[in-house]
Design a protein that fits this description.
With 294 residues, the chain is mainly beta. The chain is 0% helix and 33% strand. It has no helices and 19 strands. It has a six-stranded mixed β-sheet with strand order 8-9-10-11-12-13, with no helix packed on it. A five-stranded antiparallel β-sheet has the order 1-2-3-4-5, with no helix packed on it. A four-stranded mixed β-sheet has the order 14-15-16-17, with no helix packed on it. Strand 1 and strand 2 (16-22) form a beta hairpin. The protein is elongated, with a radius of gyration of 32 Å.
């Protein structure tokens, strides 16, 4: 009947558990467990919210090391075990009513603020739908998804995390942009600092820096080489510096017709060679297979 209860109690060390049957609008069964100080630690309901507050919780393990410890046991050292397959041990799933672009599944990271007990948003990881067009039982062929990473830039306790990094459906990685156009697309509005840094801290005699490579095969020298290894663009001014796959360098032009081609937008085309040593000679060496001139 409604309110019927089954109780278990340890009269020696304390602690008790009981099950209650509830009917009506909130029907179902509740299970409650108390410790030896008569503090409720577990409250499980077949309706509504439930909680576990009795310590670490283990799934697949009897010695959980964290508040939630999930372990999938396999047999990697036997012929029936997985040796080269990723073991999926946790699934997050959500369902929506005919969801479309913007719907997704996420994890939120929260913790206390500094100096007070306010709980604030630290960060998020979200998997979000980015493409949808056709609702049919066999699946939407236009479906696409992205994986996003969010961090909190600070401020009042109510400040929420914002998206900082995105991997789109094609594998493009965007940092500071939610719509990357390249395999690595870094965008920043910072006017005071460099937006990217590559620093090799190795102390060897010949540490390396940045290596850029294409697999394009240059058929001819000069402008016919086609394709670019490196390009530097300055807003509406266009490309200021390019290196083509054939090794030719263009400064002020994207179509170098020699190994080094300087073409300013206006004024003189200057080449300056300078030394900080007041006693050093400044030389320009022209070298060919037949002669060398200074």
């Amino acid at each position: 009947a409604d309110g019927d209860k089954l109780s278990l109690e340890n009269t020696t060390t304390g602690g008790r558990a009981f099950w209650t049957w509830v009917t009506g609008a909130n029907y179902g069964v509740t299970q409650q467990m108390y410790d030896n100080t008569n503090t409720r630690k577990v409250f499980i309901r077949s309706y509504g919210d439930s909680y576990f507050n009795g310590g670490n919780f283990g799934i697949g393990t009897d010695s959980p090391a964290t508040p939630l410890h999930v372990r999938k046991e396999s047999l990697p050292n036997t012929s029936s075990g997985n040796r080269n397959t990723v073991e999926e041990v946790l699934t997050l799933e959500a369902t929506g009513y005919y969801p479309y672009g913007g719907y997704g599944v996420g994890i939120s990271f929260k913790g206390e603020d500094y100096g007070n007990t306010a709980i604030r948003e630290y960060g998020k990881i979200q998997s979000v739908m980015t493409g949808s067009a056709d609702q049919n039982a066999s699946g939407d062929p236009s479906f696409k998804s992205a994986l996003t990473f969010w961090t909190n830039t600070g401020g009042a306790s109510g400040t929420l995390a914002t998206e900082k990094v995105r991997i789109d459906d094609s594998g493009k990685l965007g940092v500071g942009t939610s719509s990357p156009s390249y395999k690595l697309d870094v965008v920043s509005a910072d006017t005071a600092n460099w937006i990217s840094r590559i620093h090799n801290t190795g102390s060897t005699a010949a540490p390396s820096g940045l290596f850029i490579k294409t697999d394009y095969t240059v058929a001819n020298e000069g402008n016919s080489g086609g394709g670019y290894l490196l390009g530097c663009e300055a807003g509406s001014e266009g490309y200021r510096f390019v290196v083509k796959n054939d090794g030719s360098v263009g400064i002020g032009t994207v179509l170098p017709t020699s190994n080094l081609h300087i073409k300013p937008a206006s004024g003189n085309a200057d080449l300056k060679i300078e030394s900080d040593n007041a006693y050093a000679d400044v030389r320009l060496m022209l070298d060919s297979a037949s002669s060398t001139r200074n």
